[in-house]
Write a structure and sequence with these properties.
CATH class: Mainly Alpha
Helix content: over 70%
CATH topology: Amino acid/polyamine transporter I
Number of helices: 19
Number of strands: 0
CATH architecture: Up-down Bundle
Distance between the termini: 44 Å
Radius of gyration: 22 Å
Structural class: mainly alpha
Order of helices and strands: HHHHHHHHHHHHHHHHHHH
CATH superfamily: Amino acid/polyamine transporter I
Number of domains: 1
Strand content: under 5%
Shape: globular
Largest sheet: none
């Protein structure tokens, strides 16, 4: 039998009436709240603060500020793309529109893999955290996997019901956690007012100087993961060319301000004792306990609502990336189907969550096979999977910054700005290079020492598949970014 001929261009064009999401269902406040819920300040800060203080020292708030500047540089890239070409495909559409079909498929696979691996950590921790709370307060030991299944099933049902319903619920969870974080932080500062100091903002108190700042930088960047949430909601947002950029910068500004406040309050609550901060499992909870036991209970509850908010908002936005990739033919087309009444990307949501669940199951089986079942707790999986997922996501960030100047030179030369479309994205690539280096550098303990090789494997497979698919489907490049959110 002869080799199959390439699919004719006429057969590869996007359908005349592509599947569309519920347009105009969300406002600026909705996508902003969803973005910040995706970041999950309580969820991120609770589990990241201890290590951040351990690496950067008592001046960890400075690391957060530097990370905030780096994220703002990335925010400029996403905002510039969104103003010119709002798309549910986000980075996938922007890289693909700039460099062609092969780059689009590669980015789609890297995005999908990175976000699904990262979301598996959320699936685990949403059950693991409740298990920790029940064990602490009631001495009840329930396997965290049971809670994870229940919470995930409930979140999926909410997401299928409609983007407005699930986004508002995530926003409600976010509002509660922010209120708790601010109240505890202000109370800690007032209680410890007698020894307040500017030490946390003194560069000389960063452990080991620049190397300490750089070592804590990857984790500080991770605190902001989810900042790009609003771009994937562009098609369901009124006036996305204006609202998506506003949501991006509003979210980044509020998160930087909040994290600096929480970090300062935590350092103050521990009397600037770096060793004690590093030894505490969740330093912010310790600070809450020192103020009042009932406040600690509320802080624990804020952690639970935060993880649920992250679960809902992250799956909502990130599943839309692979939905759009399926709709444009970059990934299997069944991923690009929507619910006929509710206009939600049901297949993409199911696929996203199912693959994440499989990742958790494989991780557990590997631990059992290795006779190391004692380390099968949700916190271990959270750290491992979030690290691996972040490596792939950072690669996508890098590609997006690289694409911006080429995109504007090619499609909007009259609007090209040296500062906004060249200088800032180059600085963004440099900023991304620091956490990538510290996540992949040699000499890390297992399993982190093989994560760089796993990431290289994913990249190699993605490029190879993308090249094959592009040769088989010559019209692929024309379809990338063909569905514009507000058209």
């Amino acid at each position: 039998m002869s080799e199959a001929a390439p699919v004719p261009f006429s057969e590869t064009k996007a359908p005349e009436a592509p599947e569309r999401l519920h347009r105009g269902a969300l406002r600026l406040v909705d996508i902003s709240a969803s973005t910040m819920a995706n970041i999950g300040p309580a969820y991120s800060f609770y589990f990241g603060a201890g290590f951040l203080f351990l690496t950067a020292g008592v001046a960890a708030p400075l690391t957060i500020i530097v990370a905030g500047v780096a994220i703002a540089l990335l925010g400029n890239t996403l905002s510039q793309f969104s103003r010119a070409h709002p798309s549910t495909g986000g980075f996938i559409s922007y890289v693909g529109k700039t460099f062609g079909g092969t780059s689009a498929v590669t980015t789609a696979l890297l995005c999908g893999a990175g976000y699904i691996i990262a979301i598996s950590s959320v699936l685990a921790i949403c059950g693991g955290y409740l298990s920790i709370v029940l064990r602490y307060y009631f001495n009840v030991d329930v396997p965290w996997g049971i809670f994870s299944v229940v919470f995930t099933a409930g979140a999926v049902l909410m997401m299928i019901r409609g983007v407005a319903v699930s986004t508002k619920l995530a926003g409600l969870f976010f509002g509660f956690e922010m209120l708790v974080l601010i109240v505890v932080s202000v109370a800690a500062i007032i209680k410890n007012g007698g020894h307040l100091s500017g030490v946390p903002f003194d560069p000389s108190h960063i452990t080991n100087g620049f190397s300490g700042l750089a070592a804590g930088f990857p984790l500080a960047i991770y605190l902001f993961i989810g900042w790009e949430n609003s771009a994937a909601l562009a098609e369901e947002t009124g006036n996305p060319r204006r609202n998506v950029p506003r949501a991006v910068f509003l979210s980044i500004a509020l998160m930087v301000t909040g994290y600096v406040l929480y970090a300062y309050a935590t350092a103050t609550g521990f009397k600037y004792d770096v060793k004690a901060l590093g030894d505490a499992a969740i330093p912010f909870i310790n600070v809450s306990h020192d103020i009042a036991a009932w406040l600690a209970l509320i802080a624990y509850l804020a952690g639970i609502t935060s993880t649920l908010g992250v679960l809902i908002s992250a799956v909502n936005s990130q599943s839309r990336l692979i939905f759009n990739a399926g709709r444009e033919g970059l990934l299997p087309r069944w991923l690009g189907r929507v619910h006929p009444q509710r206009r939600t990307p049901v297949n993409a949501i199911f696929a996203f969550v199912a693959i994440a669940a499989v990742i958790i199951a494989v991780w557990a089986l590997l631990h059992l096979a290795g006779g190391d079942s004692g380390s099968m707790n949700a916190l271990n999986f959270f750290v491992e999977s979030s690290t691996m997922g972040t490596i792939l996501v950072l690669v996508v960030y890098f590609l997006s910054n690289l694409a911006l100047p080429f995109y504007y030179r090619r499609y909007r030369p009259q609007e090209f700005s040296v500062v906004k479309h060249a200088v800032l994205p180059v600085l963004g690539m440099i900023a991304i290079g620091v956490p990538v280096y510290y996540l992949v550098k040699p000499g890390q303990p297992a399993p982190y020492d093989w994560f760089p090789y796993a990431a290289l494997g994913v990249i190699a497979v993605s490029v190879a598949y993308a090249a094959w698919l592009s040769r088989r489907d010559p019209g692929l490049g024309e379809r990338v970014g063909s569905i514009i959110a507000d058209e």
